[in-house]
Design goal:
single chain; 6-stranded mixed beta sheet; globular; disordered N terminus
């Protein structure tokens, strides 16, 4: 099965009889899943809609579960509207519209931070640009003023300096994406499927050259043509009613004049004249094989059938491709299929990562054979049932949030903008549920028998890009503008925001002593349960690093009564999602499912946790997969840095084991089934477990189900014991430069072992860090991104485990500014920790934001569950978050400065840089730090 990470990775037959870590649980009688039709009834968003005389379409959904309102503005403008030579304009303008407007000049994040906005962002795709934030109810009027000001009164605040600044930021966003392994696929895929003049024929982020060519007049003309109210949809979802919405929206948006109508482009669905094949070279660890077809968009009658086909073929954990290519024939380590369903077109894509040592040609032919077989036969009824249940369950869980990237506001806005129907999401689910094997087979035969586009990414030096940015202009700060008072409406004040009401935490105990920690959230009928084991990365044996990860990976690969395919199918029939993960000190297994299927989900969860089979052939397969994952890490900037920095910070301490938790390749290659059984017996056992649950169901209803699943669970053998007696020893300050040739960006990471203890309450330190590195408006991010535009985003933060606390910095920067960026970071640290502490404005903004954003931060059950885990690990009271507002309000800036200065020493940082040594090394000579250059392939040897 596809093991998902939780968490703002040759044995004789007689060994199969080895006792496992717990008394074997007799398989529970199979609980019949709830009918899909009953689950679909749970998917509903009641709404009202109205349109202003200027054409602004407004949709209102009332949800009183929390005192917050999601504000989401969707503009009918995306990259498909861009003419030749203007690629990337829509995305560039997304950035420009965050840099203030005429009557609210300055960074848009500042006033929204002040009011406690959460889920705050903006995105651009082929079809649209959107802006969204979730604000406390008393701040709704403020948010509407800000959104209306950038819709109707923007251009006076768009200066040449702002354009140059955000152009640089966007170009570094592009470099950051391109810098990842396989990061160049999107460009080749679009070129392969579409002609150069096709509306969907270029990437959303555009070309560096086109971005350089954008003049101030160009971007202002783009705004005038596309960002009028008649080209937008506004959704308000949450603690608001229709009458209030009409009054406020009319007040703030009603006087904005309509603009030109943005007409949809003509979008033909291209069919290749003949099969087409491309090969690109990249510094990757495994060959990737891709097959793609252009297909109809989401409004087409065949859209649901094509989505069902993709899920059955390669989307489900038990998909045809997974079962054959990954599990049975072991030709691939990963395979997937899906449809990128866009407003006017779709891309049906199948991707396979070839297993190391396998002939890519052999694997590719088998992939093609399986696709052809699926097109010929179609899915069966059970596969379709599992496709629908999985999709509906995901939609139910997604409806818990009113806003953000995937909540109710998104569903309503997308339906209105793309399909002229806010309730289109229900029609999509109904269409999916109505599919039969015959309809899916017919759609697959209609669209997937056309000539295919094939792409392979193979290991080799990355091919040089012809898309090169112009030399950067000298840095000029944008002018400090004052409000222009260019509209009658004034910037409204924000009323009092109520203190957080955190749900009551209750406890129970199972017969075997396992503690159950519970909170009730009734927004959606979903039950989430997580078992936290007192283990974590430090529990890995020093000579078998990677053992924990392999053990966790194996848990869903078969029990004593179900093989891996049967487990995947059972999970899908329940609409359940099983995950594993770990921190430095804890190991987690979790499950979520519609509450109607909670009993069956707990039974399945218990089977996975208590009865893993650890079949030798599956151990061998997953071991090879983990080794392939390690090799992938060694091609990824973040993976490389993550394997080195913890060793430099912790030295001989067991916490150094957090470096590269996929493990040491030499050790992983030797792991056996007996090793896995020994680890499970020692660490994944009831004495080390606590169960955390958040559900709409009451505790009284859940405890009997948990008792049935886990109450008679007993450990076997001796429990594992952590030895944390070896103190950490941080290496002396220096720079370790990991040579990753052809990198368009450098990844700068840095860290320091602080004098703080893991048991300390870090509220003062974390609040101070909101100013230094923990927020978009932090000193570090504003300096490297907004002032210098050398980075797409940078920051720093405290890392806490049970014994130790570190401070770490993460800053991807353009390669030719690596040395200067380290200098800038050193200056930012030293100034903040000495002569330029927290200003009055920063303090006010931080405390206002911290107190006002609490309701938004804990809107979802997942956030509540995470808070319960933290409170338990760090031994905080259950009402910690319910009383945190008073703690914030009692703080002073001097108190926060003192906390930061006592914790962070700018002279003690050790730096790890991942980049092209021939470009970066000469930049480091002036930093007064010794430099050690390490080839990327050798990072596992760094001590």
């Amino acid at each position: 099965m596809h093991l998902r990470s939780i968490a703002l990775s040759g044995v004789a037959f007689c060994a199969l009889l080895t006792p496992l870590a717990a008394t074997a649980q007799a398989p529970a009688a199979t609980v019949k899943p709830a009918p899909v039709a009953d689950l679909i009834k749970k998917v509903d968003i009641a709404y009202n809609e109205f349109t202003l005389p200027n054409g602004l379409r407004v949709i209102v959904h009332t949800d009183r579960k929390a005192p917050v309102v999601a504000v989401s503005v969707w503009y009918n403008i995306g990259s498909k509207f861009e003419p030749k030579g203007r690629t990337g304009f829509a995305h560039l303008f997304e950035h420009l519209m965050f840099n203030g407007s005429e009557n609210a000049p300055g960074d848009f994040f500042d006033p929204l931070k002040q009011v406690g906005a959460t889920d705050l962002n903006g995105t651009t795709n082929y079809d649209r640009t959107n802006y969204f934030e979730t604000v406390p109810t008393p701040a709704l009027e403020k948010a509407l003023f800000l959104e209306s000001d950038r819709m109707g009164y923007l251009l006076g605040a768009v200066t040449q300096e702002v354009l140059d600044e955000q152009r640089g930021v966007v170009q570094n966003e592009k470099r950051q994406g391109d810098n990842r392994p396989y990061g160049l696929i999107q460009y080749k895929l679009l070129d392969g499927l579409f002609s150069s003049d096709h509306p969907y024929g270029h990437s959303v982020i555009g070309s560096l050259a086109d971005l350089d060519a954008a003049s101030l007049d160009d971007v202002k003309g783009w705004f005038r043509n596309h960002y009028g109210p008649n080209n937008a949809v506004l959704v308000l979802a949450g603690d608001v009613d229709l009458a209030t919405a009409k009054r406020l929206v009319t007040q703030y948006f009603g006087k904005i004049a309509a603009g030109p109508t943005t007409s949809l482009p003509n979008v033909p669905i291209p069919t290749l004249a003949a099969p087409k094949t491309d090969v690109i070279h990249d510094r990757v660890a495994a060959t990737l094989v891709l097959r793609a077809w252009a297909v109809p968009g989401l409004n087409d009658k065949d859209a649901a059938a094509l989505n069902a086909a993709a899920s059955a073929l390669g989307g489900l954990s038990s998909s045809r491709l997974d079962n054959v290519l990954v599990r049975q024939e072991k030709l691939a380590v990963q395979v997937s299929a899906g449809v990128q369903s866009l407003a006017q077109i779709g891309i049906f894509q199948v991707t396979m990562v070839v297993r190391p040592g396998v002939d890519a040609a052999v694997a590719s032919k088998r992939l093609d054979d399986l696709i052809a077989e699926f097109i010929k036969t179609g899915p069966n009824a059970d596969e379709l049932q599992r496709v629908v249940t999985t999709s509906v369950s995901g939609r139910i869980a997604g409806l818990e949030s009113v806003g953000g990237f995937g909540g109710k506001a998104v569903a309503l806005a997308q339906g209105e903008l793309y399909s002229n129907d806010p309730g289109f999401f229900k029609k999509q689910l109904a269409a999916l549920a109505a599919q039969t094997p015959t309809t899916v087979q017919a759609a697959a035969q209609k669209w997937l028998t056309r000539p295919v586009y094939s792409l392979s990414v193979v290991a080799g030096p990355r091919e040089a890009s012809g898309d090169v940015a112009a030399a950067p202009k000298p840095l000029v700060s944008p002018p400090a503008l004052k409000p222009a008072n260019s509209r009658a409406e004034t910037d409204p004040a924000v009323g009092p925001v109520a203190n957080l009401v955190f749900p009551k935490v209750e406890r129970a105990e199972l017969s075997n002593g396992i503690e159950v920690v519970y909170a009730q959230r009734t927004a959606v009928p979903v039950t989430r349960a997580l078992i936290s084991f007192d283990a974590g990365a430090v529990a890995n044996p020093a000579d078998k690093l990677g053992l924990q990860q392999l053990t966790l990976s194996m848990l869903e690969e078969g029990t004593t009564t179900r093989d891996s395919i049967a487990l995947a199918e059972a999970e899908e029939r329940l609409g359940a999602n099983v995950s594993t993960g770990n921190s430095a000190d804890r190991t987690f297994l979790s499950i979520s499912a519609p509450s109607a299927n909670a009993t069956g989900a707990f039974d399945l969860f218990a089977d996975i946790v208590r009865n893993p089979a650890f079949k030798p052939e599956e151990v061998a397969r997953l071991r090879t997969t983990q080794l392939a994952g390690i090799q992938q890490e060694l091609t990824n900037p973040a993976g490389l840095a993550g394997r080195v920095l913890p060793k430099l910070l912790f030295g001989p301490s067991p916490y150094a084991k957090t470096a590269g938790q996929n493990g040491d390749p030499a050790a992983v290659a030797k792991l056996t089934r007996d090793d896995l059984i020994a680890f499970q017996q020692a660490w994944l056992r009831p004495e080390k477990a606590k169960i955390f649950v958040v559900s709409d169901l009451g505790l009284a209803a859940l405890v009997p189900q948990l008792e049935r699943a886990f109450g008679n669970w007993q450990g076997v053998g001796a429990a594992g014991v952590k030895d944390l007696s070896i103190a950490p020893v941080q290496i002396a300050p220096k720079i370790v430069l990991i040579d990753r040739p052809d990198s368009p960006q450098s990844l700068i990471t840095a860290g320091q072992l602080t004098p703080l203890k893991g048991s300390d309450n870090l509220l003062d330190e974390q609040t101070a860090n909101d100013v230094l590195g923990g927020d978009f408006l932090s000193r570090i991010n504003l300096d490297l991104r907004e002032t210098k535009h050398w980075s797409y985003g940078a920051g720093g933060g405290f890392g806490q485990n049970e014994q130790l606390v570190t401070y770490r910095i993460n800053a991807p920067v353009q390669a030719d500014k690596t040395g200067e960026s380290i200098k800038a970071l050193q200056i930012d640290l030293k100034e903040f920790l000495s002569t330029k502490g927290i200003t009055d404005a920063e303090f006010t903004r931080t405390i206002n934001g911290a107190t006002r954003e609490l309701a938004g931060n804990f809107e979802t059950a997942g956030a509540v569950l995470s808070a319960m885990l933290d409170n338990d690990q760090y031994k905080r009271p259950d009402d910690y978050y319910a009383t945190i507002t008073q703690k914030y309000r009692a703080m002073t800036s001097a108190q926060l400065d003192a906390a930061a200065r006592a914790a962070i020493n700018p002279d003690k940082f050790v730096w790890v840089v991942v980049g092209d040594a021939k470009v970066v090394r000469p930049q480091l000579d002036s930093l007064d730090l010794s430099v050690e250059v390490v080839p990327a392939a050798s990072v596992t040897d760094v001590k």
